[in-house]
Structure formats: structure tokens, C-alpha cells
Amino acid sequence: MPSQPAYTPIEMLIDGAWTRGTSGKADPVINPATGETIGEVPHASPADLDSALAAADKGFKAWSSKTPAARQVVMNKAADLMTERRQHLAEVLTMEMGKPVVEAGTEIDFVIGVTRWCAEEGKRAYGRLIPASVPNTRYIAVREPVGPACAFTAWNFPGSNVIRKVAHGLGAGCSVIIKPSEETPGTAVEIGKCFLEAGLPEGALQIVFGIPDDISRHLIASPITKKLSFTGSVPVGKHLAKLAADTMMRVTMELGGHAPVMVTADADLELAAKLSSTFKYRNAGQVCISPTRFLVDRKVYADFVDAITATSKAMKVGNGLEDGVQMGPLVAERRVEVMESFIQDARDKGATITTGGERLGNQGSFYAPTVIADATDEMALMNDEPFGPVVPISPVDSVDEMIHRANRLTVGLAGYAFTTSGKTAERLSHEVQVGMLGINSTAISLPETPFGGIDESGYGHEGGIEGLDAYQRTRLIVEAR
Length: 481
Ligand code: NAD
Prior knowledge:
By secondary structure, the protein is α/β, with parallel strands linked by helices. The protein has 2 domains: 12-255 and 457-480, 3-Layer(aba) Sandwich (Aldehyde Dehydrogenase, Chain A, domain 1); 259-446, Aldehyde Dehydrogenase, Chain A, domain 2 (3-Layer(aba) Sandwich), CATH 3.40.309.10. Helix content is 38%, strand content 21%. The strands form 7 sheets. Strands 14-17-18-13-12-20-21 form a 7-stranded mixed beta sheet, with helices on both faces. The model has no long low-confidence stretch (mean pLDDT 97).
């Protein structure tokens, strides 16, 4: 057993101070690799949420009145502190979420990268002077931060999901109230500490926890919040978007997907199998852009199934704190049950399980890397986002069929294609209906690039200039001489 690093004591951040809140209620935080309770996450009372709202209002005035250059100094200092504490942050993340500590370190690098990128890009909120058709009058479009924002994030990226809200909001000049997942609160608290120690004004960032629906209803209904950003499932996203309609606040929705992976007959099969299996098992498949529906040309189908079965069998699964572990547990027992039900359904409908198909060990929520050959569109896991370490592969007979089946669902977040034909690549880039398409690449999420889906995968973007734009508004000033 690896020695257990110290987990973060969980408190909420309200008006520049750490607090357990006033509700007296709390939930345990469980390490999914061991099933042990490692901490306790306090719940905010309605009075605590009102304090957070008042603080965000005050914090917005203080933060937005600073120059973008002054904001950049604070944000870069926070990034420096995260860099110093990288290993500790990665260990906390692994203990609460399960992913291998090396992978958690990569996530912390992304957190630092996004913070620095937003700090820098915040300086470029240019408006414009419009050469208008009315004489002796200046028409000026100004860009400004939209106001206090509220944000809600899922457990699968305890660092990245949080920073994508916090750094884009702060970079644009907004204050932020964030409710990270109660299952993975420690990484957010550690990130919050770095911002506070870097000199962030009181109230510019609030971190709260509690019953998700109670918190989001309270914060969204307030006239103080002007922006909502959510990362999570499609049903919860639809629910929150309806609540946001009542105040007409701006909304960004980063919801689930069901990414097709199209492998054509002319593809570099070694590259396709290597990239898609590495990317598939990242975070045990609990990634919204995880490759999830493999549509493989029949001419190379058997070779692809063999290749990905071999890499899947070779995966070292275990406690993410142990050296050499490549895949950790699922976030909680409920996700193991979901995998069991997907695999039973696939078996019942004629699939062949070439490896895996079972839970692993007798503690923690581990599920084996699983390859499902002869998958059909009638199977549940080809329709509902699996969010786990499962690789359903289906043979196809033409590029037409690949495109048709790739576009079959109502979600459209990520997609991947492997082909050596420029003509096919161009066709797929036009016709596959997803927000992000990787062709011979899975590197589709960087601090500087827009990240977001289409259709039921949501709207708006995080990342890139679009990520800051989501926290800004345009006003027109007309000035006659
Ligand atoms: P879930 O929809 O119950 O929860 C997802 C997250 O949303 C959780 O962190 C939860 O705290 C939060 N949440 C739930 N209700 C909320 C509310 N009313 N207000 C504010 N936040 C709320 O699903 P789950 O069982 O935790 O995860 C399974 C499914 O969620 C997956 O199948 C996947 O589709 C989706 N998911 C998507 C992403 C993503 O990045 N798009 C991330 C995690 C989970």
C-alpha cells in the first residue's frame, strides 16, 4: 500500500475567509480506490449563500475596477503557487477522484496553463470605435465584465472543470461563486487557497458546497448573479438552463457527449489503436470527450479489435497513488453498477466481450478495461454516454455509413477520425456534427482553443478567446460633439 498523503480539510470560501458555514450539515468524502472516508464536506445554509452573494457583489466591484494588468499579476501569482504545490494538488486530486497521480499532475499543469492564459488574454478585451453614418458623433462599442457569475461543476476533472470557470471569469473581470462537486471538493479548495494567498480581493471568489439543487436554485434566482456556467450531464444542464431563463442571465453549458471514433480502411491502424486506447482509459473513461463509439471499416475491423484488446489487457489498474498504475477506479460504486448494466445489455444483444466485462478487486470501485466487439446501435451503451472504461466497436462498410451513424444521436461534443486520405478528412470535417473533431489526433483541449459542444451537448465555449467572451458583454456609447 502506498503511504497516504494528507487530504485537504474542506471549508467554504466566503468573503475572503474559510468557513464551515452555519448549517451544521456535512457529507463524507470517499476515496474511490479504498472506500475510506477521507474528509467531510460542509453544506452551505441559505444564509451562507446570501453572504456569498453579497460578497460576490462587493468582490465584483473591487476586482473589475482593477486594471487587467493588475489582475494578471494576481492570477499569475496564483499560478506560481499552484506550480510550487503541484505534487500536493495532484495527490489530493487522486485521493478524491481516483485517477493516477501522474495523470492528476497533468491536470494540474492544465489548471496552471489555463490560469496564465486567461490572465494574459484578459488584457485584450478590446471594444471598437465604429465609423458610423451619423455625422459629428462617435459610436463606441465597449467590452466589459458581465458581473458576478455562478458556476457548478462535475467531479470528473476536480481541477480542470473548476479552473475553466474560475480563470475565465476572473480573467474577464467577473467575480465567481463556484460550487464544485461535493464528491471531489479538495482540489477546488487548494486552488482557492492559491488565489487567496496571491492577493485576490475579498469576495472575488466564493467556493460553496451543499445539496446541488438547493444551491443552484438559490444562486441562479438571485438578481446579483449575471452569468451561469455548468459542466455536467445533459438532464441537469437542461434543468439549470430553464432556471436561468427566469432572470435572462447568460449561460454556458458544457454537457455530455458520445464521441464517435471513425477508422477508415486507409487509416494508420497502429496510430488509431494507440491514440484511442490511451485516450479512452484516461480517467477510466469518465471524460466528456472520451472516445465512446468506435465505427471501424470492416476491412481493418478484426485487426483493430485485436490491437485495442491487447492494449486494454495490458493496462495496469489500481490505486492511483501507486507507481506505474495507468487507470484508477470509477468515481463511486454507482458508476460500477452502470457499467455492469451496460455490459449485461450488450451481452444480451449479441456482443462479444474480448477482454474485461467485470468489476475488479474487493475494495474500491474498480472496473476492468473492457472491449465490446460486434456492438450494434441497439445496445444501450451505443446510445447513452457510457462514462466508463468501455470500448464498443462496430464494423461499418463505407464512409457514408460512418458519417450517418456518427450523426445519429442528439448530442455532439467530440469526435475523432483516423484516415490517411486528405479527401476523406475534408469530407468528415464538414459532415460530422460535433463541436470538436480530431483527425489523426486526440489533442482537442488546450487553454488557447475553444472547447464546447453543439446540439444537446450544450452551448457556449470555455477555452480560447471564446472562453473569456462568455463572461463579457458589449455596450454601445453614442457621443455627439
Ligand atoms: P449527475 O448529472 O447527477 O451529476 C453531474 C454533476 O452535476 C455532479 O457533480 C453534481 O453535483 C452536479 N449536479 C447535479 N444536479 C445539480 C443541480 N441541480 N445543480 C447544480 N449541480 C448539479 O450525474 P453523475 O451520476 O454524477 O454522472 C454521470 C453522468 O454525468 C455521466 O453519464 C455523464 O453524462 C455526465 N457527466 C458529464 C460531465 C461533463 O464533463 N460533461 C462530467 C461529469 C458527468
